[in-house]
Fold this protein.
Amino acid sequence: MSNNNEHGNGHSHHYILPDKRAVKIWAILLVLTIITVSLSYVNLGTVNYLVGMLVASVKAGLVAMIFMNLAKDHKSNMVIFSTGFLFLFIFVGLTASDLWYRGDVFIAKGTPLLKASHGPSKFKKPWNSTPELVAHGKAVFTQNCVSCHGDSGHGDGPAASGLNPKPRNFTQDAGWLNGRKPSQMFKTLKDGIGGMASFGTLPQDDRWGLVAYVGSLHANPLKDSNEDLAKIGIDPSKEGGGEVVAKTIPVEFAMELLVREAGNPK
């Protein structure tokens, strides 16, 4: 291995990597690779992720510093290289925060494999708008919807100009593909429609709150009949509506089922 290094006298020379050092670094990289592979057979929870990233960083550093001769290169290149690692650490930190707090990725033994995605509603009849429900919906709207639909729900948010079809103007009568009754808006939020993705992952209180707030933006809000509510699986005789919520299973268990189906018990 060689590398041209500039010196103050205007001359340059080639740095030759000694064979013994190359063999030592190769042996270290081999050991680190064995550690990485061994981690796939051990379940240490989030520690697997940390150790794996640490080993990968050490291996990358050794390759760059020794085999790429960055250690002997101009110092400015070292700064550029180190800056790349800084952005890598920022990326790892952001993704790790999602991984560690996702909820059902790492699950303790004995935890039920099936669980409801959302708990019961804290509102007795959330399909009936109340000031409390509207206030709750406004907070959810501000967090999730303003960028497209705008502060006042006119479809003029900062991101609206780049969307096709354009975001709904909630103050108008026309254009509601599913209708603008509370149950119909609730179904739209749950299933998605047109250019809008599903918001079914939101707790039902958040979705009913959005329905109440969006309804309050219109001069003539509509109401549901019992038949309307029944179409979306809501029993108005039950407190909270008795919504049938989706069931989820942990990611690890889903992967195990896939392996079993493929005929590989290991």
About this structure: The chain has two domains: 4-100, 131-248.
